[in-house]
Specification:
The protein is α+β, with helices and mostly antiparallel strands and about 230 residues long. It is built from four helices and ten strands, in the order E-E-E-E-E-H-E-E-H-E-E-E-H-H.
Length: about 230
């Protein structure tokens, strides 16, 4: 996944999907950070995102859910994050791949005793939304876990096949575009372009020379006038 890059950026995301024409982003939620939870209480919450920084959000009970999420979004933008709301009220944060790695899978939270305990910071494990291949933990302790693991593996394998089909389709489009461009460009067209460039270059040089000579002549006139006045 890390070796599949274009212009230095990864093109395979955590769900094994191909992203060629847009940057890869990651989305995650913080356990317990929900706009519908303890809505009757206002609370200042401090969120510390490892290498990104610390932000204090005001869970104001007077604000609507939309206004509250919009306020949180404005607070986290300087840290390279964007905030939005899921249907169940959970707040999710979106960032690029580098920002997600900077979170290091953890966030420290301090509240005022309503949604989160006051005093000592709580270190919480963020929850990727959705869970990607890099976040998956495969367990084989019992039959049910083995069945769940096989379901996940099969889902990833189906996505790999879909991504391969997407890449082949993209290559086919590129090949057609190159063939069309080649068919529409003849040797005569190239020669005509070269001749036009040569003509423009010559005209440009002649115009520059004429302008330079004119300026030089004017400069000489002014110089002779100044010398005459000095005498």
């Amino acid at each position: 996944m890390n070796n599949a890059k274009s212009d230095g950026l990864r093109v395979i995301d955590a769900e094994l999907k191909v992203n060629i024409d847009r940057p890869i982003t990651r989305t995650f939620s913080v356990p317990g950070l929900n706009v519908q939870r303890q809505r009757e209480h206002s609370e200042l919450i401090k969120l510390s995102f490892q290498q990104l920084g610390t932000v204090v959000v005001n869970m104001d009970a007077k604000l609507s859910d939309k206004a509250l999420v919009s306020q949180i979004d404005r607070h986290v933008i300087p840290f390279g994050l964007r905030a939005s709301q899921q249907d169940n009220g959970d707040i999710v944060f979106r960032t690029n791949e580098q920002g997600f790695q900077g979170v290091e899978g953890k966030v420290q939270v301090i509240g005022q005793g309503h949604r989160y305990p006051a005093g000592q910071a709580n270190t919480l494990t963020i929850k990727p939304e959705p869970e990607g291949i890099e976040d998956s933990q495969f367990t084989f302790n019992n039959r049910e876990q083995i069945r769940d693991t096989l379901v996940k593996v099969n889902q990833h394998l189906r996505q790999v096949q879909q991504s391969l089909d997407d890449i082949k389709a993209y290559q086919a489009v590129l090949a057609k575009q190159m063939a069309d461009a080649k068919a529409n460009t003849s040797l005569g067209d190239v020669k005509q372009v070269e001749e036009k460039l040569s003509q423009l270059s010559g005209a440009g040089n002649q115009q520059f020379s004429a302008t330079y000579r004119s300026l030089a002549a004017q400069a000489n006139v002014h110089r002779h006038t100044v010398v005459a006045l000095l005498k």
